[in-house]
Task: inverse folding
């Protein structure tokens, strides 16, 4: 029997960054966002990021609420369509091609599962859209979607007194995440130097030295900002952790150690993805996530002991 299209489901929780103040969003964050998106006119749910148009809307399937976030493809990149033997032509006037991402909140907290088509929106674009919807056009605060790591990787990072090595690799045409920090700045400059057409492989290492307090903070921040981002092919770090009466080095792979689940959507790769199919596949991944978390996964808030704070 023919198999459907396999897709990757990722898991995040929303954090609010306002200057030096970083806090976990309220446990009802996604409910609040769903209400905001439901009550806003279409023009307030549109955003342009780096020349690409996006829009979002709130909906539900079989009682499951979700956010639909779509990337509008430029008309210059539209494919032709086939409507008979050896008969092809441009898409009919008035039609737009949209690559979607579905965001499906779940659980008593504010964890969200995401699933998208192959050319779906970037994570940085959906973060910008959420920030604008929640905080308005004059953004004084931003929303960051933090990926959920497996418990062992999370524990290593939280215990680390320093990061001695960072190695990251980004695919060509991948948007470098928004945010401050020297690692992201270096990646943006490298991408701009090749007009986005080159794969970027960056390695920073202290060698056998152990950095003094604060000297490796930029490396730590860079790893946290890049962990779990679509298009980031490699994000590895070497950290120094306390051990007995001394220290030792441990390795973390922030791509392999981010919790994801692969699901199958539809009965065939020729089947068009539908909201019910995409949300249903996300719910299947959520069930697997819950089983995984019971055994070894923790959200960032769980492992740091943070609590939900008001907006």
Result:
């Amino acid at each position: 029997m023919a198999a459907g299209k396999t897709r990757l489901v990722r898991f995040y929780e929303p954090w609010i960054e306002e200057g030096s103040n970083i806090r976990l969003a309220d446990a009802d964050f996604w409910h609040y966002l769903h209400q905001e998106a439901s009550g806003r006119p279409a023009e307030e749910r549109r955003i342009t990021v780096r020349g690409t148009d996006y829009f979002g809307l709130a909906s539900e399937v079989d009682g499951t609420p979700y956010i639909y976030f779509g990337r509008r493809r430029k008309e210059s990149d539209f494919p032709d369509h086939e409507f008979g033997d050896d008969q092809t032509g441009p898409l009919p006037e008035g039609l737009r091609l949209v690559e979607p991402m579905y965001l499906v909140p779940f659980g008593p907290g504010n964890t969200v599962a995401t699933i998208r088509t192959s050319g779906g929106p970037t994570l940085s674009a959906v973060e910008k859209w959420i920030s604008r919807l929640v905080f308005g056009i004059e953004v004084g605060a931003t929303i960051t979607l933090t990926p959920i790591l497996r418990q062992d990787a999370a524990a290593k990072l939280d215990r680390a007194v320093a990061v001695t090595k960072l190695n990251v690799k980004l695919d060509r045409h991948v948007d470098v995440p928004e945010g401050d920090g020297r690692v992201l700045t270096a990646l943006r400059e490298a991408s701009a130097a090749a007009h986005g057409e080159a794969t970027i492989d960056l390695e920073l290492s202290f060698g056998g030295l152990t950095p003094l307090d604060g000297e490796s903070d930029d490396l730590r921040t860079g790893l946290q900002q890049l962990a779990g981002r679509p298009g980031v092919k490699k994000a590895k770090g070497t950290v120094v952790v306390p051990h007995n009466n001394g220290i030792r080095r441990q390795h973390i792979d922030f791509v392999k150690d981010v919790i994801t689940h692969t699901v199958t959507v539809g009965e065939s790769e020729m089947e068009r993805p539908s909201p019910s199919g995409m949300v249903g596949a996300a719910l299947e991944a959520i069930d697997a996530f819950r089983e995984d978390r019971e055994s070894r996964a923790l959200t960032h808030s769980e492992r740091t002991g943070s609590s939900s704070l008001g907006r």
Observations:
- DSSP finds seven helices and 15 strands in the chain.
- The chain has a mean pLDDT of 85.
- The first helix runs from residue 29 to 39.
- The CA atoms of residues 166 and 204 lie 5 Å apart.
